[in-house]
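To: structure subgroup
Subject: Chain for Friday's discussion

All,

I'm putting the inputs and outputs inline so they're searchable in the archive.
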Amino acid sequence: MWRAARRPYFSQESNARMLLASASPAIALFLRGLELTGARPKELAAATVADFNGHSLRLSHRKGRPAKLRVRHVVLSQDGIRFFIGQAADKLPNVPLFTEDGEQPWRRHVWAREIRAAISKVNETARGRARIPSGASAYSFRHARISELLQMHGVDPLTVAQQTGTSIAMIERAYLRFIPAALQEKLAALKDA
């Protein structure tokens, strides 16, 4: 996974894998959901079983002044579909997809504490680039997903913006360095035409 914006990041994909392996089962599931969707942690924490329709996940957040509710449907990969089917199994529609303890939806201070504990556990034995920055957070999974979609998978910025609920302006400001050179050339050719 790659650096994005100004927040701490995972210097390599194995960092995220080590973090997931060192985390408690409940937070590992929550972080995996963030990894598959690029969602803001608060959005995913609020998602219920009814928000998953079998191929996409309905997420919402408040943005702007005055704050308006922005709703989007994140299209999931086959891995994402299987993962969310597992999360929704045997749950009523109004139940949160992810919980701290089987009932309580994730709260920011609780997921932050759990992630710090997992980072400490990884960094006890990790050295060099294998260490996870102490400031990494649940939001780092969002940054990593956006960067991965742009760099590794060559997904166009408009689609990434729609999938992750951000703007093209934010993609340009924070993630432009991850758009492959070939895509930049195509965009430049369009601008000149």
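Points worth raising on Friday:
Strands lie at 56-63, 68-75.
The two ends are 34 Å apart (CA to CA).

D.
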